[in-house]
Amino acid sequence: MGEQVIDASVAIKWVVKGESFRKKALQLLRDAKLRGTILIGPPLLEYEVESNLQRRVYHGRATLAAADASLNAFYAVGIQILAHPTLVRRAREIARQFNQERVYDSIYAALAEIQGGEFWTADKNFYDAVKSSLLFVKYLPDYQ
Fold it and tell me: Pairing state of beta strands 118-121 and 80-81?
């Protein structure tokens, strides 16, 4: 069974056509369902997905109907949203350890570390910064 943390860079690929590495993201989702893997994310995940889709509407790259369809598809996946009392503190430590400008990506990594699962991201900059030390952080293009 197990758990996998998914960030918005992966989740958005499930629900928006034309995204790079969309096939890999969809395969990861299918495999998780087949294996009974529980997909999890911090509360930040919902905010980031909502913001990404709203930005597309604002800039005229998506209609309201398309954004709403994408949101419905995202919520239908049923990712469990988890918080933890030490999540933000650990994220801050990770961000500082790896010289990150913001803690957003580190929140996902902290959740994976706390829960003992993998963290899948399509954020190459964050992955490159942590890959040699945080071996549970995985890069979506490497998914097989």
Answer: unpaired
**Tally of domains within the chain:** 1
CB 95 within 8 A of CB 102: yes
Q: What is the DSSP letter of 25?
A: H
* C-alpha 113 chain-centroid distance: 14
Query: What distance in Å separates the CA atoms of residue 53 and residue 61, rounded to the nearest whole number?
Result: 9
Q: For residue 1, is pLDDT > 70?
A: no
Determine the structural domain holding residue 32 and report its residue range.
3-142
108: domain CATH number? 3.40.50.1010
H helix intervals, the chain: 8-15, 22-35, 44-58, 64-77, 87-97, 104-115, 124-130
Please say whether the beta carbons of 138 and 121 come within 8 A: yes
Average pLDDT over the chain, rounded to an integer: 97
Helix (H/G/I), strand (E/B), else coil: 29:
helix
* Residues facing residue 5 across a β-bridge: 40, 119
Residue 32 has pLDDT above 70, yes or no: yes
